[in-house]
Known about the structure:
By secondary structure, the protein is α/β, with parallel strands linked by helices. It is built from 27 helices and 19 strands. It folds into three domains: 253 residues, Alpha-Beta Complex (2-enoyl-CoA Hydratase, Chain A, domain 1); 184 residues, NAD(P)-binding Rossmann-like Domain (Rossmann fold, 3-Layer(aba) Sandwich), CATH 3.40.50; 206 residues, N-(1-d-carboxylethyl)-l-norvaline Dehydrogenase, domain 2 (Orthogonal Bundle). The protein has an eight-stranded mixed sheet, with helices on both faces. A six-stranded mixed sheet has the order 1-2-3-4-6-9, sandwiched between helices.
Amino acid sequence: xxxxxxxxxxxxxxxxxxxxxxxxxxxxxxxxxxxxxxxxxxxxxxxxxxxxxxxxxxxxxxxxxxxxxxxxxxxxxxxxxxxxxxxxxxxxxxxxxxxxxxxxxxxxxxxxxxxxxxxxxxxxxxxxxxxxxxxxxxxxxxxxxxxxxxxxxxxxxxxxxxxxxxxxxxxxxxxxxxxxxxxxxxxxxxxxxxxxxxxxxxxxxxxxxxxxxxxxxxxxxxxxxxxxxxxxxxxxxxxxxxxxxxxxxxxxxxxxxxxxxxxxxxxxxxxxxxxxxxxxxxxxxxxxxxxxxxxxxxxxxxxxxxxxxxxxxxxxxxxxxxxxxxxxxxxxxxxxxxxxxxxxxxxxxxxxxxxxxxxxxxxxxxxxxxxxxxxxxxxxxxxxxxxxxxxxxxxxxxxxxxxxxxxxxxxxxxxxxxxxxxxxxxxxxxxxxxxxxxxxxxxxxxxxxxxxxxxxxxxxxxxxxxxxxxxxxxxxxxxxxxxxxxxxxxxxxxxxxxxxxxxxxxxxxxxxxxxxxxxxxxxxxxxxxxxxxxxxxxxxxxxxxxxxxxxxxxxxxxxxxxxxxxxxxxxxxxxxxxxxxxxxxxxxxxxxxxxxxxxxxxxxxxxxxxxxxxxxxxxxxxxxxxxxxxxxxxxxxxxxxxxxxxxxxxxxxxxxxxxxxxxxxxxxxxxxxxxxxxxxx
Length: 681
């Protein structure tokens, strides 16, 4: 056996243990070891049944994703499963921890499945741009039917063992002694085989299959792999299993080497390394249990909900009693609506809210381990709040600002201990959005940043670490993106054309629809604050300012880049905006021209790439792929496209340099080409 597979006999039962920590990934060595073990079992007359179990904390939590970027080495997983099915003696899989992807497909190839309470089971391959490739689309429907298989496979759903038992996916659920129970169960099967492949093809109502398929396609953004997964699953009804398995494998192999799957693997690995620093024992971060949130507005309420849901005790403080009352209502209403909708049990909501307190008195923050300031974006207001925090907070409490643009170093410099000050930039709504920027100031202690990472992990957030700089990572890139879109407005494009092009590419919303939703006055205030430092020779588009001067602040005023008639779910094209844009072009002597959707998208992507390269050279971001993580998780960038860094690497340096040079020519004065090498590091 390989060192990844251990074998021992318990009387007449052979126990095959996968030993490939930390998740027992189904690597080449694991597959070869399993195949050898099955052959050994088949040829061992003393072994009448076998159990496959995972060593450590899990069964097999998936394949080795690193292998997907290169030709897969033999033996492939279908060969291992075929050997199990062809073996005349029964094989039982004993599941604990997680049985995901190829691990679950291996279990489906066994004669029976027994699981420990708490085991998670699923086929999440679609989240990586592929489909199950070792029989998942063929065997699972034979157990649970077509419609349910479409739901689970196309949604990449992970289910608990209790539900798997109800569905008939596993044969037995146990609370303890998994191996002992599995051996006993295996003995009960001696002399028999129970192959899923021998189950008759399931029948299904065409209307129900159509409904399940449409629901899956909508949730999966109609991506090609979702379409193909549905096709493979429905093949079960008409296609012999060997033909179905062969077709599934061909599709899997084609998708695996495609750009979309490569982009999703890039994003997967970029996100997986975010918490890498927590594996180091060098820094001992402060343990956080009680959080104080200063400010009861939209952000303060959202942050409070995020912290409460993660099991923290939270104090919400606002000196304005009316504002505090509104904030408290937002928090309690949130949990009330979750209970009403059936998404949360009433006793669970009650337990969460027991950890919620609120006050107008600064003295109440004394027991907090972390104080998060979430007040109005004004430097004088922030300074005043931090003076109060310093006076009343515990001397070893960590202090964070939720600012999205302001200079946190300027705040920290006016405190007595700047080493405990850092940024926690949540995205709105804070209880929903995954992205959080952890901002490292000049004097911030490394242990404080580590504590911030631990905090983000407990919240279930996706954190990126940024140095303190205007706009940090996400807003800095977004500003360059929006600026390029404004350039195109002047040159001949319309807001609806730009929004449509980017939404068709995969963005959640176009920039002008986003601006109307968030409020044009917010960016206007920021532009006015920077007006004195703006170089008058640099290109500046005044169209947004003209809209604001006309009182068009977006959805909240019913007019912005679009008009919003009462009851309208989305913006309607406004002829007055067209006139304002055309007059702006004429005032600069610009002859308007037509744009293709491809050109719009390309200019946006190039602008992002150039700005990311600036962030790297200015040492604002430590790992360039963090920028892709930020854009996907906070700005609606299509995950299946990987991010601007991934796209730049696919383009190659030579082509990228040529296209950025052309972008610089189109953008005019003020565009600074970055050193692009940082995109390829």
